[in-house]
Amino acid sequence: MKKIIGVLALDPLAGKAYATQVHQVFRSRAVVRNYSIIDGSVEHMGQCDLYMASTDALDAMKKQGHSFPEGARFMEIQVTYRKEAVSRLLEIPKDTTVLFVNLTETMSREAVTQLEQLGVTHLKFILYAPGCPLGQIPEIAVTPDEERYVPDGVKQIVNLGQRTCSADTMIEAAMRLDLQELLEEDDFRNYQESVCANTYYFDQMFSRSRRLESQFDMLMDVLDQGVVAVDEAGKIYAINPLARNITHALGDGVLNQPGEQVFPYIPFGWCLREKKETEPKVVRVAGSLVSLYVRPVLRKDQCVGAFAILQRFNEMERRQNELRGQLMKSGQGHRAKYCFDDVIGQSEAICYTKEILRKMAQTESPVLLIGETGTGKELFAHSVHNASSRSSQPFVAINCGAMPENLLESELFGYEEGAFTGARKGGRPGLFEFAHQGTLFLDEVEGMSPALQVKLLRVLQEREIMRVGGNQIIHVDVRIVAATNEQLEEKVADGSFRRDLYYRLNTLPVWIPPLRERGEDLFLILEHFRKGLGGQFALSDEVRSLFRAYPWHGNVRELHNVAEYLNFTGHKLITERELPPTFLAWINGRKAELVQEPAAGSFETEEEQGRGGFNARRMVLLILMEASQNGRPVGREGILRESAKRGLRLTQPQVRSVLHSLEKEGCVQIRRGRGGSVITEEGIRRLREEIKNRFKID
User: Fold this and answer.
1) How far is CA 594 from CA 285, 586, 588, 597, 612, in A?
2) In this predicted structure, what is the pLDDT of residue 247?
3) 363: exposed, middle or buried (C-beta count within 10 Å: 0-12, 13-18, 19+)?
4) What is the CA 443 to chain-centroid distance, rounded?
5) Which one-letter DSSP state was computed for residue 125?
6) pLDDT higher than threshold 70 for residue 157
7) 300: left (phi over 0), alpha (psi -120 to 50) or beta
8) Residue of 387, 240, 250 whose CA lies nearest to 307
């Protein structure tokens, strides 16, 4: 059965034009009747399924006391211009003064405002209506089919034709008449293509007077949130498929019913009365936990409706995962680049490290990589991720020691719009969100401030974060791999690093061996660098011996720099003369040490001096014995200071290695935290025996 549509306008000509346009879209599905205020036909309006009235007609009805039949459904016609009309205006040269002519000055102003919204901003409009004073007459007049009011003296008239019903108006009418299927037909598509689209804010889609139902209809169907909309009386006029699914509301029986009666857990009444958005809350709906809030639709100071947003928790997480995946694919995320096969080396130390890390990769526990700078901790972090069950998920890395506290916090946890000056519009997800279901690598974790340590501990314990400036809890599933140099235990001892966080991160600690402890691996790595640089050089036997003795404080990173330097020398055989200046300085210092007489009280043999080494073992035992005699323990930092005073410059790795070796022999006891290390009776006995043998004391 055909629907009956009544079209009402102030002016009969405008009404006839609107009626023709409506018929052009609805065709055989509806009978279109035309009414006007000026010709008095408004007084004889028959019963219609839907009344479509222009804005000026509605205003005139109120002033003159006219009304629609009782119980009638009506909507406001939103008008726009044909695209061809706007194109004609865009052809007029920039800054041209034109006279805009319409029935009233108010209508002229409203029409020009709409043209500017549609991009016609290059002309200087003078508004004119019958009876308005007019000074100098421009050469061009523009009018929406009101040529009869154009004053004499105008040389050119651009008639835009009657403004036409917007596509959004047609969509709203189709929805109200339950004729949505015509929106897929060619008649509507051709009409939509011929008219300009207006732009409104999202809230105005729910405004009864200015609904962009084309966008509203599409959003209602494709939004990943459930939407229930009510009018100013609190009655439901729209509910999208997802909201039906969440609430188990079937069919159209809920339409035109009181919102709070159908959905008592949705506070529509409070929102309409207070004209405020409700705080998000969690409710149980049909057995599922649902996030819910209600937002009012305001027109000026009047609340003309409200809509509720519902979303299941698992659906929120799914959409967050999809967004993260898109960010990863678009290059804003990160992927692990290396695996254990990329770790070059055959030494026992590196093979053991790879073996133990492969096993650790299969767990979900945090891994703590401990090692000097340049040992390749990040390479191992990549490898752990790629060997884990999370290998297909994101790998995100950040250097905690390279950023100020506030910047590091926003990078890790993200921020909401307006959280601080310069915050990006819409906010930004943090690295924890990007790394969801993957791995987050925290390099130089010892550089994290105490405040951030607290937040990191909460993430490890609760698997939840909150963005800077936000109030929403976001669930994250992230595996942590952290890296540190050897100072972390000292930071725990002096209180600058939280002990509880340390034990959380230190679940699976692994020592990454320095280059000097990896034997012939350094030549394998050097050869890899040489090939990568396209070099042709080779090392002389003399230089190979020097490389073995060199301490390599910068480890693999320093070796790469040396390889690059050697490549640029242009020499195919590298001798001592072609080595970098820093290397030569070490050689000169080493030669100077070789010719010095042993200092009194030193325990190095001539053989040890000849290969440029020191007996760190005896020095550590001596320092520990003296500390024991003084009744105090001593930590690694104290051993470093004391050995330096005695002319022996040790490194953290050397002291660590010596202490662990002596502990295995039963010579020392290593105490954690502030306890330091103490020498045992066995250690004192062995030290005295070594001193006796060294100086042949009877």
Assistant:
1) 82, 12, 10, 8, 7
2) 85
3) middle
4) 20
5) E
6) yes
7) left
8) 240
Contact predicate 183/153, CB 8 Å = no
Alpha helices in 177-336 (DSSP H): 186-194, 213-222, 241-247, 259-262, 268-274, 313-329
Structure tokens at 494: 């002096």
pLDDT tops 90 at residue 357? yes
Report the relative pairing of strands 226-231 and 302-312 from DSSP bridges. antiparallel
What is the per-residue burial (b if ≥16 Cβ within 10 Å, else e) of 539-570? Answer: beeebeebbeebbbbbbbebbbebbebbbeee
Please tell me the distance from the alpha carbon of residue 209 to that of residue 157, in angstroms, as a whole number: 32
Give pLDDT, residue 203: 35
| pLDDT tens digits, 54-72 | 988 998 988 888 888 888 9
When mean pLDDT is compared across 16-25, 232-241, 671-680, the lowest value belongs to 671-680
Which letter does DSSP use for residue 346 in this model? -
Identify the three-state secondary structure at position 6. Answer: strand
- The 3-state secondary structure of 487-538, one letter per residue: CHHHHHHCCCCCHHHHHHHCCEEEECCCHHHCCCHHHHHHHHHHHHHCCCCE
- What digits encode the pLDDT tens for the residues 467-499? 888 777 888 899 999 999 866 777 888 888 899
List, in sequence order, the alpha helices (H) in 550-651: 555-569, 581-595, 606-610, 616-629, 636-645
Q: What structural domains and CATH numbers belong to the chain?
A: 3-80+166-194 (3.40.50.1980), 83-160 (3.40.50), 223-315 (3.30.450.20), 340-511 (3.40.50.300), 515-595 (1.10.8.60), 606-695 (1.10.10.10)
Pairing of strands 474-475, 124-128: unpaired
The Cα 535–Cα 527 span in angstroms is 9
Q: What are phi and psi of 373, to 5 degrees?
A: -65, 140
691 pLDDT higher than 70:
no
Tokens for 225, please give them.
């949130």
Give me the residue label for tokens 């314990």. 461
Cα first-last separation, the chain: 124
pLDDT in tens, 641-650: 778 777 677 7
Instruction: Give the DSSP letter string of 634-684.
Output: B-HHHHHHHHHHTT----HHHHHHHHHHHHHTTSEEE-SGGG-EEE-HHHH
183-220 CB burial, b ≥16 within 10 A, e <16: beeeebeebbeebbebeeeebbbbbbebbbbbbbbeeb
Helices 405-413 & 450-462 angle (0-180, nearest 10) = 20
Measured CA to CA, the distance from residue 65 to residue 59 in angstroms comes to 10
- Cα separation, 634 vs 463, whole angstroms: 39
CB-neighbour burial class of residue 297 (10 A; exposed 0-12, middle 13-18, buried 19+): buried
- The pTM score is 0.46
**Angle value at C-alpha 320, between 317 and 326, nearest 5 degrees:** 145
Residue bearing tokens 């943090």 = 430
